[in-house]
Amino acid sequence: MLQNDGFRALDRGTCLRLLAGVPVGRVVYTKQALPAVLPVNFCLAADSSVLLRTSAGSDLVRAIDGAVVAFEADEFDAATRSGWSVVVTGRAMLLPDPDGQELPDGPDSWMPVRDDVLVRIDSEVVTGRELTGA
User: Fold this and answer.
1) Which of 4, 48, 92, 109 matches a 20 to 30 Å C-alpha distance to 133?
2) 99: DSSP letter
3) CA-CA distance, 123 to 74, in Å (whole number)?
């Protein structure tokens, strides 16, 4: 076994700082009893939860509202063989539209959305790893 395998665990604060710097991640959820992964754009809320915007009637909303999901984002450089990966695990829920007013700030969806809603994923467990160049 190598003494330095090039991996380093990241603390919660570092993980959240890295997440805040990238616009795209992946929601990992269960769809018809099978694992599913969907790339989405997102942002971090002030409480460190992950926010994403999607269509109210989407398959994603039906599959994740109230469910525990994982959310992963990363950044890698093939030339230097370095990068990082962060995983947030927590309950996903729709944010209510308070009395028909505009939804709170969140990411703009890169995909066209109809009757947009915000989904919040609580950051109950946050883990990350960094790979340093070999």
Assistant:
1) 48
2) G
3) 16
> Which amino acid type is present at position 83?
G
DSSP state of 96: P
Give the type of residue at 116: D
**Which amino acid belongs to residue 99?**
D
In whole angstroms, give the CA distance from residue 93 to residue 65: 5
Q: How far apart are CA 49 and CA 34, in angstroms?
A: 25
Tokens of 12: 């919660």
Residue 7 has pLDDT above 90, yes or no: no
Q: What is the pTM of this model?
A: 0.83
For residues 117 and 103, the answer to whether their CB atoms sit within 8 Å is yes
H-assigned helices in 52-109 = 59-64
Measured in residues, the chain has a length of 134
What gap in Å lies between CA 68 and CA 54, rounded to an integer?
18
